[in-house]
Design brief:
Blueprint (H helix, E strand, L loop, with lengths): L1 H30 L3 E2 L5 E2 L5 H6 L2 H33 L3 H12 L6 H12 L4 H8 L13 H25 L4 H8 L4 H12 L1 H17 L2 H7 L6 H9 L5 H30 L4
Antiparallel strand pairs: 1-2
Helix pairs in contact: 3-7, 3-10, 5-11, 7-10, 7-11, 8-9, 10-13, 12-13
């Protein structure tokens, strides 16, 4: 009886997910097998040409750049976020709450607005070039924008809190008696970290990497504003197909490809998460 009551309570959520998530996904999959008419309208003449077109070298290059951007963003946020979260978790309650508040404050501002802030900072006549010229460190403005490195830097900045918070939560829940016992038994500080602390905080690392990798694949406004035409990523390509390109079937096929890539990443994450329960490292 209790089982049926729980199921009945879940029905509204299942209907909500089915209507707002399931139906659009099914429509996108169906649309990916349609064709584009001469005027840009969708013609439901079933074909797999949209998926064959994905294997064009220029499209595979964009897909590779997007996956590489997501992987590098995950790595960079991990290298910055882990030490930050680790030492923050060891502070007193008031200090770490203040630091976490500072980490969360950027979420109160539009990410698009923050991106324009980076443009003001990095453009040719921006604040950085003006300051460096005033100090006599450079003679002419340096071109910081419209390259892969700048897009990576700003993407890391945008997604860094998603790495810090899960790792902080994992470190905060750590039983410090375990590494202290290892130290008492003769382990060095570095050995206690690599063999005890890092494996015990692996779920936080995996959670942070997942929260960073998935949105990094689809972000397009950062590459549009700071990368220009030189840095076309998968999100930008999909946006163009649904917008100026007026090729919804091909855009849908690209969307399905991106969803499959994300699903593969989530599957890998679940496998690693299960392994971390028994000691990932």
């Amino acid at each position: 009886m209790k089982k049926w009551k729980n199921l009945a309570g879940a029905i509204p959520m299942l209907v909500w997910l089915g209507v707002l998530v399931g139906c659009p996904l099914i429509y996108v999959v169906v649309l990916s097998f349609a064709t584009r008419g001469p005027t840009g309208l969708v013609v439901f003449e079933w074909s797999i040409q949209n998926y064959i077109r994905i294997f064009d070298p220029k499209h595979l290059r964009i897909f590779g750049l997007s996956m590489g951007m997501a992987a590098l963003t995950s790595l960079a946020t991990l290298l910055v976020g882990y030490p930050f979260a680790y030492f923050t978790a060891k502070l007193g309650k008031r200090k770490r709450m203040l630091i976490l508040l500072l980490v969360m404050i950027p979420f109160w501002t539009s990410s698009l607005l923050r991106t324009y802030g980076w443009i003001i900072l990095l453009q040719t006549q921006g604040l950085l070039n003006t300051a460096l010229q005033a100090l006599g460190l450079i003679q002419e403005p340096v071109r910081y924008m419209y390259n892969y490195g700048t897009v990576l830097l700003v993407t890391v900045y945008m997604l860094l809190p998603f790495m810090i918070l899960p790792i902080f939560n994992a470190v905060d829940k750590l039983d410090w008696a375990v590494p202290e016992a290892a130290r008492d038994l003769g382990a060095k500080r570095s050995q206690a970290f690599w063999h005890i602390i890092l494996p015990l905080t692996a779920p936080g690392i995996l959670g942070g990497v997942t929260l960073v990798f998935i949105p990094a694949v689809g972000l397009f406004f950062i590459s549009d504003l700071l990368g220009g035409a030189k840095t076309m990523l998968l999100g930008s390509l999909i946006r163009d197909q649904f917008g100026s390109g007026r090729n919804w079937p091909f855009g849908s096929a690209l969307s399905v490809l991106m969803m499959l890539g994300v699903m593969l990443f989530i599957w890998i994450y679940t496998r690693l998460a299960k392994g971390s329960e028994g000691g990932l490292f």
